[in-house]
Write a structure and sequence with these properties.
10 strands, globular
Length: 267
């Protein structure tokens, strides 16, 4: 009986040691791989931004383009003002600032008035990270805005790029969503995204008028052609989500005040 108990005890001891060693190995791997994971995530973000801005292709050195042409501007979404000193608002490193994480933190975000929350986001971070793309002589060329909004199944996250008139769309890309493949998931389709460049977001009075049109745009209507893109076939709620996303983030609750200040500065 004693021998049997000793045998069982040894089995448990070996199992415990193996568990501890395995846990230490996994934890060590996570720590060692963390820098690579962060670097790869940053590279993927930069690649998505360049793609939306029409600057990515075969042979493009992503890091080099970012270093030469792109600067990150922290924007206070409560005022539309660029933040001159991020450290003064508690953000030591703008590059690693995570707006999505800040949105979930009550200390770093505000609840959105339900009547104004057309994109169904519930909360809005105090600060957003905007990517300013410069031309060869250092002038403003494009502005990349992070956008998000709820579709049918998920919150869609992406980037909308405007030309230096701060009205003409250069491109759009969605980096994260859970919409239905073949339906709402067509927001990833290059052919659909190819309709966006050249569209005007605002009308003459500064109102956001661009939207996805159910049934497709009327090519004989100059206003339709200037402002709208085809809705997603069989994906009305995803199309509505994209419409609300554009209206929210390009309007007064999003980047509208910031873009107006850029225009006033002669951008």
């Amino acid at each position: 009986m004693s021998s049997n108990s000793d045998s069982i005890g040894r089995v448990f001891t070996v199992a415990l040691v193996l568990c501890i060693v395995s846990a230490l190995f996994v934890a060590g791997s996570v720590v060692l791989l963390r820098p690579d994971q962060v670097a790869n995530k940053l590279l993927d973000t930069q690649r998505n931004i360049l793609t939306a801005a029409g600057l990515y292709g075969d042979g493009v050195d992503v890091a080099d383009v970012f270093a030469r042409r792109i600067s990150i501007q922290l924007v206070d979404l409560r005022t539309g003002e660029p933040v001159a000193d991020p450290a003064a608002v508690g953000i030591a490193d703008v590059v690693s600032y995570d707006q999505r994480a800040a949105t979930k933190d009550p200390a770093r975000s505000d609840a959105i008035d339900p009547e104004k929350d057309i994109a169904k986001l519930r909360r809005k971070a105090h600060f957003a990270k905007v990517y300013v793309i410069k031309g060869d002589s250092g002038q403003l060329d494009k502005v990349v805005l992070p956008v998000s909004g709820y579709g049918l199944w998920s919150t869609m996250h992406g980037y909308l790029v405007l030309a230096n008139d701060l009205n003409t769309v250069v491109g759009i890309t969605f980096t994260d969503h859970g919409e239905t493949p073949g339906l709402g998931g067509e927001i990833d389709n290059p052919k659909w995204k190819a309709q966006w460049p050249g569209k005007k977001v605002y009308d003459a009075d500064g109102n956001v008028v661009m939207h996805l049109k159910k049934g497709g745009i009327n090519k004989a209507d100059p206003v339709d052609v200037a402002h709208n893109v085809d809705g997603l076939a069989g994906a009305t709620l995803t199309s509505d989500g994209v419409n609300h996303l554009v209206t929210f983030w390009l309007g007064s609750e999003g980047f509208g005040p910031y873009l107006k200040k850029l225009k006033a500065q002669g951008a």
